Amino acid sequence: MSAEKALALVVRTTDWSETSRIATLWTREFGKVRVLAKGGRRLKSNFEAALDLLTVCQVVFLRKSSASLDLLTEAQVHERFPALRVKLPALYAGYYIAELLAEGTEDHDPHPALFAAAVEALRDFGSAEKEISLRLAAFELAWLQELGYSPLLDSCAGCHRPLAPDESGLAFSAASGGLLCRDCQEGQRDRIAVSGELRRRLRDLSGPGTAWREDCRPAERGEIRRLLGQYICYVLGKRPRLLAYLSNLP
Q1: Angle between helical axes of 112-127 and 88-103 (0-180°, round to 10)
Q2: Which residues on adjacent β-strands are paired with residue 192?
């Protein structure tokens, strides 16, 4: 067994015995790892509060050669997000990020950019007021991009024809993986009409920067939430548990 050091975000914990627990960590260096923290449930354990959900911690773990759990030997708190404890919408959004990382990624498949995107989103939830929904949408698009499922927004997902910047009559289809022109929408029952403004907003949120801080009408935030929620359900093959708590995000 080899000892590995990593910076990790705690995305899930489960009690294992009276004194130990299992933790799912999303690490910058190794992707998702599942570890056994012996003594992790004791009041005065070596891990203290480092294994609290949505805590960033410095960890040391022993990698097992088989499919069994890795063994966590050290965990120290590196960063917390106190705003999540006082803002319920931000907490729901944070739990949803943890669910996407725990359920929607493979073990030991590192994506440093996705780790950074998750931590940055959790930080931004603390300063966001009316933009939590858009900030979460920006993370969802980053998650989709890292996993190879970026929605097609500049060409038709059906015929692959480039779409004009001001083209009207477009619709989004999760099954098709992006926008569809008028000619390719027939038979797509999951299609959602997409306006030019909504298309522009999705493109801006897909790129770097702080487009999520721009003013956005509540109705448009709802359209983005519905579209991305439908697409992520399709990609995952199931409905995330936390998705039901996100419909009224500011």
Answers
A1: 170
A2: 172
CA pair distance 201, 241, nearest whole angstrom: 26
| pLDDT tens-digit map of 149-162 | 999 999 999 999 99
Per DSSP, what are the bridge partners of residue 15?
21
Dihedral of CA atoms 35, 41, 45, 49 in degrees, nearest 10, equals 80
Percent of the chain with pLDDT over 70: 93
Structure tokens that stand for 139 in this block: 């993370």
Whole-number Å distance between alpha carbons of 40 and 151 = 41
Could you give the strand order of the β-sheet that contains 170-173, starting from the edge strand earlier in sequence? Answer: 178-180, 170-173, 192-194
Q: Which of 122, 130, 29 is nearest to 80 (CA)?
A: 122
Q: How far is CA 27 from CA 4, 17, 59, 204, 220, in A?
A: 11, 24, 9, 28, 34
Express each pLDDT in 167-208 by its tens digit: 999 999 999 999 999 999 988 889 999 999 999 999 999 988
- In order of their start, the domains of the chain are 2-79 (2.40.50.140), 83-155+160-245 (1.20.1440.120)
Q: Could you give the residue ranges of the DSSP H alpha helices within the chain? A: 88-103, 112-127, 132-146, 196-206, 218-236
Estimate to the nearest angstrom the gap between the alpha carbon of 99 and the chain centroid.
7
Contact 6, 59 (CB under 8 A): yes
Burial of 58 (0-12, 13-18, 19+ CB in 10 A): middle
Q: What angle do CA 118, 112, 86 make, to 5 degrees?
A: 15
pTM above 0.90, yes or no: yes
